[in-house]
Amino acid sequence: xxxxxxxxxxxxxxxxxxxxxxxxxLAAIIxxxxxxxxxxxxxxxxxxxxxxxLVYQDIKNLQPYNIxxxxxxxRWLSIRRQMHSSSWQIPLLENACQIIDKYKDNGTENLLPxxxxxxxxxxxxEIASQCGLDRNLSFQSARSTFAVTIGIANKVSPVxxxxxxxxxxxxxxxxxxxxxxxxxxxxxLSKKLATxx
Length: 197
Known about the structure:
The chain is mainly alpha-helical.
């Protein structure tokens, strides 16, 4: 059984195309300094999706009240996800928290300033070109980048990733993964990403 993290569904067969960025490609986007604020904002939105696994509409709908702080001081997103119409809690990596903090006074009522998906995808093509990436970059690739490049490549368990993605029926074990276990894995992931900078 192949789990298609990009489409949020399970399918039989093999994955025939790479829809995620490698760590090297991701690093090129992270390190690039843009002259244009519109490209910088869209880059940050894309990175936020890479660090959370959220789809465009979920990010667009985020409000400041969606951020909650746990007893251990970690920040979580508490949202009603577009893809599931159910409440969901997602621990935030430090990289995602930094993006939230950067745009806390963004002049809108939303958590992050989010242009239309058409503009976002058009700007991502400019970003890919400026970063020397030979690919047709679109926002939806961020979700698979979170699963494969950020998560699995850094030893986050598939069960935890499935839980974060909302694959409640992927395995009976995924429904029993505790918030404490997810928080622990995400904290370890934050530390790994910090040392990889």
